[in-house]
Amino acid sequence: MLSQFLFFILFPIILLIVILVFFFFYPETFDEMYFGKREIGLLIVGSASTMFLDLPVFIYKDYFLALNIGGALIPIILSFYFFVKKAIGFPKFAGGVLLVAVATYMVTRVTETGVVSYFPFYLLPSILAILLAFLLYTREKTTPVYAYAISTIGVILGGDLSHLPELFEQPFAGSFGGAGVYDMVYLAGLISFCISFPFIKKKKRKGKIERMVEKVEKEAICVGKIAGIEGNISFILEKVLGRREDFELLRNEHSVRKARKIMNKLIKEMHEKIRENYAPPEERLVSYLIDFMIISGFSLALSLLYKSIFLPFLMFFLLFQIIYFIPLEFFFGTTVGKALMDMEVRDMSAEKADFLSIFTRNIIRYLEFFAGFYAVSLVLISLSPKRQRIGDAIADSIVIKVRE
């Protein structure tokens, strides 16, 4: 009994560790799958920090249906992201989802505690997704993310949505992916990915120094765009730092330790030179307090409709973290608070941030909120060369000053 309990507790952790190991040895392959640092950070840090948070979907009398952020929303967002980025054909995607959904419906049933499935039957959707992925894409790099996507969406449809009529036969309160990282929705995608990845064709990992050179080149290009400097890497470094000798030393260095020291020095100095372009911590704080007051006002107004104010206020306040920040930052690049302080959210090249970056930085906001409100974020913004909080570092986003 104890061994089964430990296995249940450790199983998702083991799967996530396996993904991290794969990423460490094959980072270039992961990048080609659009499953890089940002996506892994969202999957692990984002899901772990929001597995106890539910978004209300349907509320009526004695019926309450929600969507768990960590256990369902994040896997769903990632699945559709892979679908779009890897240009998976809709017929293949829809067909795979349908088959996995049927399989999931067959191995799940409704009990007093909700929709359940038992070992080893809950492995069937993932196994079917893996077989379909290799059938359609053989050993291509699309295989693992296709398996992840169709298993995740298929389990949501076949395990949750299809059982709603049975669940609503009597008063019900529950959520899709309610068990968080231990939910079948979350685990199905992880299992599919972890089993399929070892069998695909992988890109050979580059040498450490080669990766360091590429990192400096990438950072230099981003710094050049922020500073409005165009040209090759050497020209950008010459304009920003007034020299380019260190970069030449890095390219010709054979010692990994010395190369890492040169790389860190170059990156730190480049961002220090353009630091005035990043929004300072005091202005970030003011902008957040403005947004905080707006969110708190709406949350308080809605909570007054309930007998007890505190819990409804907290629920609405956490909900508005998503429905306020994400749409405004994605469509306009800013919020009311940021706009008043002349700030915008951008990607690392100072271009418009894509949806996943905006989504990720704001999902991680929950972790920062519970880890000391905004205090931890302010410390990180003050110390970071790019003035990033945890969410920005994971999402590869920055907050810059908008200059006329």
Annotation keywords:
single chain; 404 residues; mainly alpha; 3 domains; 3-stranded mixed β-sheet; two-stranded antiparallel sheet; 20 helices; 66% helix
Question: Care to give the gist of this entry?
Answer:
With 404 residues, the chain is mainly alpha-helical. The protein contains 20 helices and seven strands.
Description of the structure:
With 404 residues, the protein is mainly α. It has 3 domains: 1-199, no CATH class; 208-275; 281-401, no CATH class. Helix content is 66%, strand content 8%. It contains 20 helices and 7 strands. The chain has helices at residues 2-25, 27-32, 37-50, 69-85, 90-107, 124-137, 142-160, 164-167, 184-196, 208-227, 233-241, 245-252, 256-273, 281-303, 310-323, 325-332, 336-340, 355-370, 375-383, 390-395; strands at residues 54-60, 63-68, 109-111, 114-116, 172-176, 343-347, 397-401. It has a 3-stranded mixed beta sheet with strand order 1-2-5. Strand 3 (109-111) and strand 4 form a beta hairpin. Helix 4 (69-85) crosses helix 9 and helix 16 runs antiparallel to helix 18 (355-370). The protein starts with a helix and ends with a strand. The model has no long low-confidence stretch (mean pLDDT 87).
